[in-house]
Amino acid sequence: MNATWITIILLAVGTFLIKAAGPLVLGERELPERLRSLIALLVPALLAALIVTEVFAGDDRQLHLDFRLVGLGVAALALFLRLPMIAVILLAAGATALARLLF
């Protein structure tokens, strides 16, 4: 077994232990309202950070503006128009592919 598989297994076990620790420590108690509101705010912030990192970051840790930005713009417009999520994804992928093809 190589180092990659050992790392994957250790991360899986660690993730399981972290997820199991919550119910074991808290039991039947509810989380405080302040903590629940903080957790609710973390989800969109993490998603936004992942999107920005994937769209603007390059391999050399520099800011890159390329065809992915076109797809992000089309996705934002489609979400603004309240289109179904599958339409948002297909439009963004199509716009990105078309921009790469034309430029």
From TrEMBL:
Q: Which residues cross the membrane?
A: 6-26, 38-57, 69-102
Q: Which UniProt keywords apply?
A: Membrane, Transmembrane, Transmembrane helix
**A Pfam match:** AzlD
**According to the lineage, what is the superkingdom?**
Bacteria
Entry-linked InterPro entries: Brnchd-chn_aa_trnsp_AzlD (IPR008407)
Record's protein name: AzlD domain-containing protein
Q: What is the lineage of its organism?
A: Bacteria, Bacillati, Actinomycetota, Actinomycetes, Propionibacteriales
